[in-house]
Structure formats: structure tokens, C-alpha cells
TrEMBL record:
S-adenosyl-L-methionine binds at residues 80, 105, 126. InterPro entries: Alpha/beta_knot_MTases (IPR029028), SpoU_MeTrfase (IPR001537), TrmL (IPR016914), tRNA_m1G_MTases_N (IPR029026). It catalyses: 5-carboxymethylaminomethyluridine(34) in tRNA(Leu) + S-adenosyl-L-methionine = 5-carboxymethylaminomethyl-2'-O-methyluridine(34) in tRNA(Leu) + S-adenosyl-L-homocysteine + H(+); cytidine(34) in tRNA + S-adenosyl-L-methionine = 2'-O-methylcytidine(34) in tRNA + S-adenosyl-L-homocysteine + H(+). SUPFAM superfamilies: alpha/beta knot (SSF75217). It comes from Levilactobacillus tongjiangensis. The keyword Methyltransferase applies. The keyword Nucleotide-binding does not apply. Its main location: cytoplasm. This is Putative tRNA (cytidine(34)-2'-O)-methyltransferase. Residues 4-147 form the tRNA/rRNA methyltransferase SpoU type domain. Keywords: Cytoplasm, Methyltransferase, S-adenosyl-L-methionine, Transferase, tRNA processing. It comes from the Bacteria. Its EC number is 2.1.1.207. Could methylate the ribose at the nucleotide 34 wobble position in tRNA.
């Protein structure tokens, strides 16, 4: 079983770079759905994930239908949206032996509304106070969701204990 973070037409290189760093640290596959709002050679993207970009399994897709065509059946596809009824903590991510895909929308407009309506049963949300902010930051949202998934899966393949030399703690 593998976990995937998929970004639909991401606009900001810093968000994508930060998400790539999270993917590197959690052994999560990063799916990028074109068009991208930046070049993957962009200095901002490299700055956000410079030491990690080559450690991430990045898969590029020409558009949303092309991405969906790569997802094997059966699979667990979740659409992350603040408009969903189900909280991201409600699904049981530990019971399925198939890959889990978490699709995040464009920073400015989210996922296409017709697509969301067609797949409303797959939508999950991170609770937030909409009176103070429009939306949570994309890279923060991806980290929140993937760490809940990893928690439910007992943090597979992740080191649980670090031993530091005592002199570095002083």
C-alpha cells in the first residue's frame, strides 16, 4: 500500500516544494497535475525542497482525466475540500490494502465544482473557522492529512526514535 498526495494545477512553487519535503519525510508519492503555475526548475521550488526533491517519487500528469486514468481499481481516492461534510479523521485509512490518493485543489479555486459534485462521497475536509480565514495553506493541509493517514497506519517505515549526541543538545 502506498500513499499519494496529488496536487491539481498547483500555482505556488513554495507550497509544492514544502509538500515535496513532507512527501520525502513520509515516503509518500507526489502526483502533480498540469498545468503547473511554475517550472519545476524554479528557484523558489528548489529552495523549498532543494535537498529533498530528488528523494521524492514525483509523477506528472497532463490533466485531471489523465491522472484519474492512472489510479488502479479498487483504490481509495479522497478529494480534500473545505466544502466537504466528512472530516479527514473519519475514514479508516488502515484497513485497505490498496493505495490511498489525496487530491488537493488549486490554491485559488480548489477542485472543479462539477468534479466535486460528481464525487461528493469521496470528499473530506479539515475543520476550520471560515470567519477568520478563506482557507488553510495548501502545504499545511497536505501535512495534516498525510500525518493522520500515517498515524492510522502506525507510521509505516518511519523512524520513531532519534538518538542525538548529548553535546549537540547543549
Amino acid at each position: 500500500m502506498a500513499n499519494h498526495i496529488a496536487l491539481f494545477e498547483p500555482l505556488f512553487p513554495a507550497n509544492t516544494g514544502n509538500i515535496a519535503r513532507t512527501c520525502a519525510g513520509t515516503d509518500t508519492i507526489l502526483d502533480l497535475i498540469k498545468p503547473l503555475g511554475f517550472s519545476v526548475d524554479d528557484a523558489h521550488l528548489k529552495r523549498a525542497g532543494l535537498d529533498y526533491w530528488d528523494k521524492v517519487d514525483v509523477r506528472y500528469h497532463e490533466n485531471l482525466p489523465a491522472f484519474l486514468d492512472t489510479i488502479p481499481e479498487p483504490t481509495q481516492l479522497y478529494l480534500v475540500s473545505k466544502f466537504a461534510d466528512q472530516d479527514y479523521t473519519e475514514p479508516d485509512y488502515s484497513v485497505n490494502e490498496n493505495d490511498h490518493y489525496f487530491l488537493f485543489g488549486k490554491e485559488t479555486t480548489g477542485l472543479p465544482e462539477p468534479f466535486m459534485r460528481q464525487h461528493s462521497e469521496k470528499c473530506i475536509r479539515i475543520p476550520q473557522d471560515d470567519t477568520h480565514i478563506r482557507a488553510l495553506n495548501l502545504s499545511n493541509s497536505a501535512a495534516i492529512v498525510i500525518y493522520e493517514v500515517m498515524r492510522q497506519q502506525a507510521f509505516p517505515n518511519l523512524e520513531r526514535v532519534h538518538t542525538y549526541p548529548h553535546d549537540k543538545l547543549k
